[in-house]
Amino acid sequence: xxxxxxxxxxxPLWAVAAPVPKTPMKTWVGKLAFPKREGLRIACPNDSGxxxxxxxxxxxxxxxxxxxxxxxxxxxxxxxxxxxxxVMQSPEAIDEFDRRIAANAKESRSYASRGWAFIEMKxxxxxxxxxxxxxxxxxxxxxxxxxxxxxxxxLKKYDEAIxxxxxxIQQYANWEFPYRARASVRIAQKKYAAALEDLAIxxxxxxxxxAYTQTGMAHGRMGDxxxxxxxxEQAIALNPNHVxxxxxxxxxxATCPVAKxxxxxxxxxxATKACELTNWQNAGYIDTLAAAHAEVGExxxxxxxxxxxxxxxxxxxxxxxxxxxxxxxELYEAKKPYRRPTVAKK
Length: 346
Fold this sequence. Notes:
By secondary structure, this protein is α+β, with helices and mostly antiparallel strands. The protein has helices at 6-9, 90-103, 108-120, 124-137, 142-154, 158-171, 177-188, 192-205, 209-221, 225-238, 243-255, 264-277, 283-295, 299-310, 313-318, 322-333; strands at residues 32-35, 41-45, 51-55, 61-66, 70-75, 78-83, 87-88.
């Protein structure tokens, strides 16, 4: 399945959101770590194994590794460690920021931090409320406007999100990120030409795999299959492990209605890599692999992977295209490949 995971692509640099289960967490990986206090430092290993320290300035950090006493976090291209005793997860963070706000209701950072914890817990209305307060307290604070735009986009308040991203661009016109972020909103609004204009500026500022992946999505929705595939190829050239680009290019190579653009063998390779990089936990990527096997005539494999994708009940419940997975299984069982519908060029 061609995945349009735009909100996950443009999580602001100040924090990264992920859902929180209701049961106690057995691991920090994939969760957020909120600093308990300001002034913390991230220990970053260098090539020799020694560690250098950089300031921990973000509201929260995405955890990529869990050790006995420390968590490994990522900040942009920098990775390093924080002591577990110095960080907290979202439920504890909300209690802590409640206390800080009760003690000082004029501190915008406490509202912004609590708002980001609410985002991780998918309490978007509460997150919006906190960011509205944070922005009211500091109207020119770019971080708060940027993060609020993310919340507004998630709530499908697209025009308001655009206003906040416009403000960020006014302050940081040479930064590629807000152009990509605004493009994601324009794609959600089906304003594809405007999105491509923003993405062209983002690429001019700094070519990234994310920008080219979005470019591919926009071209696909405009019915230009060839440009879509070219954009995904450019994304993969910049980052061979960019799973969304790998998946989306595989999907197009396997299911494109234009025969000359299909390449089942390459689709299998790309889709397999996307599944491996996500530990076979993404039903949409497994669906793509099934389509790729069907394209090369391996219908038994296609049906096997399609059934595997259909076992993900959470994915089926939350994905509006779930019926398509079942329909494709019927095609593979009938030894037929899947062809995605033709989109008229716009």
